[in-house]
TrEMBL record:
Name of the protein in its database record: SAM-dependent methyltransferase
Signal sequence annotation: none
GO molecular function: methyltransferase activity
Record keywords: Methyltransferase, Transferase
Any one biological process term the GO annotation gives: methylation
Ranges for domain Methyltransferase: 169-305
């Protein structure tokens, strides 16, 4: 290859080198093919401990990306042309070079045409459980075809690429979860890496889904931190991240109240953390001054035996009504405390009540330092209802 083409190739490689250094956590591989006449020779490189392990002509070396590119350019002098592919999660960068020209373009990693074909062949467009278990006629955020590796890893899709019949409901739920959060990411004040803390993460399915969506669909730089007191589920999450190649994730077996982050946290998530574990997550989000706090509460037991309100005496004498009122009081007071701490709060249905009665999502976006009127209202509620909520206690203790 002539010097002019080699010079242009080196400039393109410089740009890719900067891209790698800025976000190496989403790098997947490099593939290069050299050609002279009918002969073709291929090289392949993968990530290895901050370097790239590159194999060419049966010889494997591990070196910095800069040194690997120097090696490729030196080799290119011996050939008429090359094709180079730099693969990231969700995007491939293709460079084609010969003695006449060198050009570069971005291409999607997977073909969007597979989506309709996969859905068409899935043979699952059926209605069961009062219509809640069917694939919906909607434009999914987590698309079949493109997200197959993720969907298989979280056990929603078969090895053959079909959504499992008993997982259609779960697939619809996770997709709606992404839909409810989608607009939030664009409004974050931070324009760099979005750091997301998942409190009581369990197997971290929704963090994996959000990781995929932010990285491979929205092309946003993100980092996930999962917390859970169970070593087993943390090890399971670590294994799944390794299987998927999601290096922008870390997991810790630690109690929520004991965690101290080493970076600014932009979003705190809590999905179905049981009873006062939700309050721990909310308190941690407030303490960390997180830009966004998202909670889907579960198991509202704490205030059930605390609250009393004489005007409702004839209503809450019925156990089921008292329990439902406790749910509303708990989440209502959580929302009021978030408002008192400067958050703009909305409470929405996360999924249909046919799926689960625990279907509320609390979304809080930091807009100011504090709201004294909301705090006064919170204190009045404590006195009127004769309650001392865990969220209030945690904030005072921490």
């Amino acid at each position: 290859m002539n010097k002019q083409s080699l010079t242009k190739l080196k400039l393109f490689f410089m740009g890719i080198e900067n891209r790698f250094s800025e976000n190496k956590s989403i790098f997947k591989s490099i593939n290069v093919s050299f050609k002279t006449g009918l002969k073709e020779f291929s090289g392949h490189g993968v990530y290895s401990e901050d370097n790239i392990k590159y194999n060419f002509n049966g010889i494997t070396i591990a070196n910095s990306i800069n040194k690997i590119f120097e090696n490729i350019c030196a080799e290119a002098e011996k050939y008429d042309s090359l094709q180079f592919i730099y693969s990231e999660r969700g995007t491939d960068i293709l460079i084609s070079a010969d003695n006449k020209n060198v050009f570069m373009k971005n291409v999607e990693s997977e073909n969007d045409n597979t989506i309709k074909e996969t859905v068409k062949n899935s043979n699952q467009l059926c209605n069961t459980h009062e219509g809640t278990s069917s694939l919906l006629n909607r434009d999914y955020y987590i698309k079949i075809g493109k997200a197959d590796n993720l969907l298989k890893e979280i056990n929603i899709m078969t090895k053959e690429g079909k959504i499992k019949n008993d997982k259609i409901r779960k697939y619809n739920q996770i997709d709606h979860y992404v839909e409810l959060l989608d607009g939030i990411f664009n409004d974050l004040p931070n324009k760099g890496t979005i750091n997301i803390l998942d409190c009581g993460c369990g197997k971290s399915y929704l963090s994996f889904v959000l990781n995929y969506y932010l990285t491979e669909v929205k092309k946003m730089k993100c980092h996930f931190i999962g917390l859970d007191y169970s070593e087993n589920v943390i090890n399971s999450s670590k294994k799944m991240a390794q299987n998927l190649g999601y290096r922008n994730m870390e997991f810790h077996a630690v109690d929520i109240k004991d965690y101290v982050p080493d970076k600014k946290v932009n979003i705190v998530l809590s999905l179905h953390a049981c009873d006062t574990a939700t309050d721990m997550a909310l308190a941690l989000g407030i303490k960390l001054n997180s830009d966004v706090i998202i909670a889907v509460p579960c198991c509202h037991r704490e205030l059930l035996n605390q609250y009393s309100y004489n005007p409702f005496k004839s209503i809450i004498k019925h156990g089921i009504l008292k329990a439902r009122m406790a749910d509303i009081i708990t989440d209502g007071m959580r929302s009021t405390m978030l408002e008192a701490k400067g958050y703009d709060v909305s409470v929405v249905e996360y999924i249909s009540p046919l799926e689960t009665p625990k279907n509320l999502m609390i979304r809080a976006f930091k807009v100011k330092e504090s709201d004294d009127d909301a705090m006064d209202e919170y204190h009045n509620l404590m006195n009127s209802l004769n309650v001392y909520p865990a969220l209030y206690r945690y904030l005072n203790e921490w």
